Amino acid sequence: MICFNVPPVIGTEEKYIHEAILNHKISGDGEFTGRCSAILEEMTKTAKALLTTSCTHATEMAAILSGIGPGDEVIMPSYTFVSTADAFVLRGATPVFVDIRPDTMNIDEALIEDAVTDRTRAIVAVHYAGVGCEMDPIMATAKKHGLIVIEDAAQAIQAFYKEQALGSIGDFGCFSFHETKNLSMGEGGALLIRDPSMIEKAEIIREKGTNRSKFFRGQIDKYTWVDAGSSYLPSEMNAAYLYAQLLQAQTIFADRMSSFTHYMQRLLPLKEAGKIEVPTIPSHCRHNAHMFYIKAAGLSERTRLIEYLKQHDIMAVFHYIPLHSAPAGLKFGRFHGEDRYTTKESERLLRLPLYYGLTVQEVDKICDCIEEFYR
Ligand SMILES: *Cc1c(COP(=O)(O)O)cnc(C)c1O
Q1: Ligand 1 centre and the CA of 211: distance in Å?
Q2: Quick check: is 7 in a domain?
């Protein structure tokens, strides 16, 4: 059977986890957390990268740091994972959903401004499949209306928009290291902070509202409760797992990219015959081979294709019931403008297996099967 996803294992994870245990420091913010942060800061050229327990939590931190509260509105796509909206709903804010572009499945930057009201506080750019949103126009709209930009870069580590790392362009960027992402620590994430003046506040929120981070750096001799906060730091054992993967990030990247490229080549004839669509990568975006998807003609063809692949032991999946049509989306949010593409395109999209270690033979088998289906 070809699984849809196999969590990445590079082989050195156990060694570093063992080291973390021998260090007698398994709670957060030890040596491995520090090493991971340094690598992430170097990779993204951001002032600060704080490891978190998930991307969801990194987004919650961004919402708190942005001062989002009841009555505020946050503009985002509806075609995204629930966490993008949850982080703001938890603060009492209203997600305002706008339509996506059918080519990249990212928020349509041209529709954002029309959704701005006097209650709008932030825009969330979700870089679907590790392909950058149109950040220049998004940043320009934000600047014009005094809005904060948060990048949901859960899928976008090692991807770039005009040579800037995704996650480093807006005020805050959120990575995920869940086992379904390119690099993993089981459960985990990171918050990227562009403005150095926000770092201290972020450290306090992450450490239960205390100034413990300052204490550990020897900047104060006692730590205390200074603000409202929570506990967003992962254990050293998780950080050790991530450290192993960050050291081998290029290996994982290259392996995924070769599968992605092979899919593209093999499925080109079907695309040219007008049977399916394949991902579009704008020329100014460098993606990270997070995902390979195809688009079928519509919902019923996709359902039949999933079934056909399953009969041939291939697991292909779709995701994201558009948030505005989900029960919580109806309760907490609203859609601004017309849903031209969100629902329609989400019903056509099918994700094919793509993970570190997927073989050429497996990609061939999957593509053969898709060709047979369309014959
Ligand atoms: C995976 C994902 C998340 C959530 O990441 P966690 O680390 O599991 O919290 C959020 N947004 C998007 C777009 C994702 O793909």
Answers
A1: 28
A2: no
Does the pTM surpass 0.85? The reply is yes
Residue 155 Cβ < 6 Å to ligand 1: yes
DSSP string, 154-204: TT-TT-EETTEETTSSSSEEEEE--TTSSS--SS-EEEEESSGGGHHHHHH
d(CA 98, CA 75): 7
What pLDDT does residue 45 have? 98
In short, whether 190's Cβ falls inside 6 Å of ligand 1 is no
Q: What is the chain's mean pLDDT, rounded?
A: 97
Residue 116 structural domain:
13-247
The protein residue whose alpha carbon is closest to atom 5 in ligand 1 is: 55
As for how many domains the chain has, the answer is 2
Alpha carbon separation from 359 to 127, 182, 310 (Å, rounded): 26, 16, 18
Q: What distance in angstroms lies between residue 145's CA and the mean position of ligand 1's atoms?
A: 27
Separation of CA 270 and ligand 1 centre (Å) = 31
Residues 106 and 193 reside in one and the same domain: yes
Task: Convert the pLDDT of each residue in 202-221 to its tens digit.
Answer: 999 999 999 999 998 899 99
Per-residue confidence at 37, pLDDT binned at 50, 70, 90?
A: very high
Question: Is there an atom of ligand 1 within 6 Å of 154 CB?
Answer: yes
Looking at residue 290, which CATH number applies to its domain? 3.90.1150.10
Q: What is the pLDDT of residue 121?
A: 98
User: 3-class SS at 344?
Assistant: helix
| Closest ligand 1 atom to Cα of 58 | 9
Question: pLDDT of 90-124, one tens digit each?
Answer: 999 999 999 999 999 999 999 999 999 999 999 99
| Integer Cα distance of 184 and 189 in angstroms | 9
**Residue 361 included in any domain:** yes
